[in-house]
Design a protein that fits this description.
alpha/beta, Cobalt-precorrin-4 Transmethylase, domain 1, 2 domains, elongated, binds S-adenosylmethionine, methyltransferase, protein methyltransferase activity
């Protein structure tokens, strides 16, 4: 059985009991270094995640009888490894693995809660490892985006300026961690700050009102 577990935004207080129960029962814990380090008392086998997703899929297929837990940040099905694993195994019992997913609190959900912003009609997307279509994206009133260090707050603000829009941006960095920082700025102000070093961040884009 493969269990993909959503770890929430990072702090232990935001992990679910279902997630912790699955981890306790795991024979093998698979995850990024940051996630594995959160469970120093885990006595089973660990496997560090790297960019070789095909290799991971092969290894998962080869270990059908083990209780494997794959740790994912936030919610596994929101731009996370849950999509890759479920698409790989769904409808393919020949591959011999059952998959279940335990949802977690996404970084976007966490940020919306912190700034008291309802998620109704919000357009959810990602610039993590991909370039979004900003012409399409910026037609939406309310957008939330997970990012990476190639397309982050500064680059997003530049795309907004390029289209002559007046937008407010909420930037949530290192959410749920001790060094959490949440700022609300106009896109123009984000451009003026320059291409500064942001921590792990989520950006919410709103219309200026
Ligand atoms: C591959 S995506 C995974 C998103 C994740 N599945 C979720 O639901 O939040 C990774 C991105 O999520 C965002 N992220 C995850 N945890 C975060 C945190 N604690 N603070 C700010 N952003 C976070 C960052 O934009 C990061 O680059």
């Amino acid at each position: 059985m493969i269990t993909v577990v959503g770890m929430g935004p990072g702090a232990a207080a935001h992990q679910t009991r279902a997630a912790l129960a699955a981890i306790r029962q795991a024979e093998v814990l698979v995850g990024g270094q940051r996630h594995l380090a959160a469970f120093p008392d885990f006595r089973g086998e660990t496997r560090c995640l790297n960019a070789d997703m095909d290799g991971l899929m092969r290894w998962l297929e080869q270990n059908p009888h083990r209780q494997i837990v794959v740790l994912a940040s936030g919610d596994p099905l929101f731009y996370g490894i849950g999509k890759r694993i479920s698409e790989h195994f769904v409808g393919l019992p020949a591959k011999g693995q059952n998959v279940r997913i335990i949802s977690g609190i996404s970084s976007v959900q966490y940020l919306c809660a912190r700034i008291l912003l309802d998620m109704n009609d919000i357009y959810l997307t990602s610039s993590h490892g991909r370039k979004p279509d900003f012409d399409w994206l910026l037609q939406h009133e309310k957008i939330a985006m997970v990012t990476d260090n190639v397309i982050g707050p500064y680059q997003i603000a530049q795309e907004i300026r390029l289209r002559g829009q007046q937008r407010r941006m909420v930037i949530g960095e290192n959410l749920s961690q001790e060094n959490e920082q949440i700022v609300c700025l106009s896109a123009e102000q984000v451009v003026q700050r320059g291409d500064m070093d942001y921590g792990l961040n989520v950006v919410v884009i709103l219309n200026e009102r």
